[in-house]
Amino acid sequence: MSNAMILVWFRLDLRLTDNPALDAAVRAGGNIVPVFIWAPEEEEPWAPGAASRWWLHQSLSSLDGQLRRRGSRLIVRRGPTLQTLRDLAEETGAEAVFFNRRYEPALIARDTAIERELPTQSFNSALLFEPGDIRNAAGKPFRVFTAFWKTYCSCAGQIGAPGDSPSKIPGPARWPTSLPLTALELEPKINWSTGLRNAWTPGEDSARRVLKRFARTVVREYPELRDRPDVSGTSQLSPYLHFGEIGPRQVWWALREHPSQGSGAYLRQLVWREFAHHLLFHFPHTTDDPLRPEFAKFPWRSDEKLLLAWQHGRTGFPLVDAGMRELWQTGWMHNRVRMMVASFLVKDLLMPWQQGARWFWDTLVDADLANNTLGWQWVAGCGADAAPYFRIFNPEIQRAKFDPRDDYVHRWLPELGRPDSPRPIIDHAVARERALEVFTSLRKSDPSISPPTRPHIAT
Questions:
Q1: Is 108 helix (H, G, I), strand (E, B) or coil?
Q2: Would 13 be classed as within a structural domain?
Q3: Widest CA span of the chain, in angstroms?
Q4: Nearest to residue 390, comparing CAs of 442, 337, 335, 324?
Q5: Residues 6+ apart with CB under 8 A from 364
Q6: 13 and 36 both lie in a single domain
Q7: Scanning 86, 239, 354, 438, which has its CA 20 to 30 A from the CA of 47?
Q8: pTM score of the predicted model
Q9: How many domains does the chain fold into?
């Protein structure tokens, strides 16, 4: 394909280093037109939420800067995607479209249609392995993480080293027109994003700095500190991984170069991310419906007042409220606290996990459909490898255990202890018993639901 024109279609792979589609286009020896197409309607019902759109704007701006330093630029267009790619191919004389695959249900269908209509080459950029490649001994998808993890470990030797960033990207003599990034209207019209700007610097350069810091220092104490929201003990890589500003192979190899007990613990979490994509690929209905169909009958409650109190951090339970305030201000929440606030919604309040998933989807900068789906179904007890339904987090025990000096709580709830501090909207002990009664009733009506095999654990 030497001297040919190639469209490199960027999606959630907003980096130049270890980008298989871009690498292949450079190796082909042709001229390259990098393009991003904004078509959120093609991702419905899970088009990017508000926090994700804010991050996307910053990341696309960063990517364009990276490209320009290599003699290229990012062409920005609006969809529909297929017609836009056709138009660009006609305008530039491009003979092929190179892109990295995505695995969300709506986009698999869309991309398959594009591959039927246009000459394309696609690659894996987002995962260590294709989500359909890892199966159990019977050739079926895994539904338990431990077995999935063991299989991944046995295949780890096949994970290749990440590629480099091209020093120069040849482009066309005449560039096609591009929309200004502001035309996509990704940033909020009402400026609520100050907290996000203060907390994050999107882009590939920032992603590499965060990974370098984590791999060289923070990861050493990761097993001891990862559950402590009051200290900086996690990687902070999740939004960079979601937007493809850094790839999983880069993370895998960076941690292998700094081996420690913490590195091993974090790599297990990286494979948990792979497990989430494995499940979404094989069970695409789980974005909205439980993997365990018997939970479709669960008698969820509907109470707008309680839902709003949870969303706005006004439940009267300090750890829950601190987490929801952190989410609203920064677009992120510590994973231990994510489990806590999710448990509170689905078990204390008996609200549908789908409502929690939707709120996270709109407010998280790392809102990833696979991770979000797995996380909420895990807490609700209705998904793969799910926590037992009778495991109901006690907010005060969690607070004492993981925020012992109340540093995290006071950071996000400065009014704690004052008259304007919210009072508890429920009695946790009563709510716990109610949840256990509902589960027991559901189990009696459907014997396929496994009964509790051990006492309730108040963790």
A1: helix
A2: yes
A3: 72
A4: 442
A5: 49, 51, 52, 327, 331, 332, 333, 372
A6: yes
A7: 86
A8: 0.94
A9: 3
